[in-house]
């Protein structure tokens, strides 16, 4: 599983001009299932996302997770967006190859599994729409952007 995690002040995703997901402070997670990925990898990714300490404490150090963004028990939002282009292979020229991305049916199953598990574990979860042409708006906080690959 590939992902890019961005700490955001706010983020929203639109499909055909309609807003389908919005969060305040939290994490925008762009996620891509690759060929051979499993639900166990999704579980490990979610555990990492929920525990990743990239929110600042009162001293300015990254000590808080999305489960407790302010040190006082306030959960942040998770906006999970499927993005198969994270699997792009550009070694062969100027046109990316996406053959490492999971087939659409598998990618959808793993994305849906991630969203279901996230909603069971965290109170604020919004999503994009799998395989849709989306517009993602965000205010990156920091900026803090972290790639995560779970194997």
Gist of the model:
By secondary structure, the protein is α/β, with parallel strands linked by helices. It contains 2 helices and 8 strands, in the order βββαβββαββ. The strands form 2 sheets. Strands 1, 2, 3, 6, 7 and 8 form a 6-stranded mixed β-sheet that branches. It has a two-stranded antiparallel ribbon with strand order 4-5.
Give a verbal description of the structure.
This protein has 151 residues and is α/β, with parallel strands linked by helices. It has a single domain, classed as 3-Layer(bba) Sandwich (D-tyrosyl-trna(Tyr) Deacylase, Chain: A), CATH 3.50.80.10. The protein contains two helices and eight strands, in the order βββαβββαββ. The strands form two sheets. Strands 1, 2, 3, 6, 7 and 8 form a six-stranded mixed β-sheet that branches. It starts with a strand and ends with a strand. 34% of the residues are buried. The mean pLDDT is 97.
């Amino acid at each position: 599983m590939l992902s890019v995690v961005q700490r955001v002040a706010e983020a929203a995703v639109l499909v055909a001009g309609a807003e389908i997901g919005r969060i305040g402070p939290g994490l925008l997670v762009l996620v891509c299932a690759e060929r051979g990925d499993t639900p166990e990898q999704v579980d490990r990714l979610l555990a990492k996302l929920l525990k990743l300490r990239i929110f600042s404490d009162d001293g300015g150090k990254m000590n808080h997770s999305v489960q407790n963004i302010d040190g006082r028990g306030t959960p942040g939002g998770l906006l999970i967006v499927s993005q198969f282009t994270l699997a792009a292979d550009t070694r062969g020229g100027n046109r990316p190859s996406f053959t490492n991305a999971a087939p659409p049916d598998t990618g959808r199953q793993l994305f849906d599994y991630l969203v279901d598990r996230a909603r069971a574990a965290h109170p604020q979860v919004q999503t994009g729409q799998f395989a849709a042409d989306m517009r993602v708006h965000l205010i990156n906080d920091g900026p803090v952007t972290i790639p995560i690959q779970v194997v």
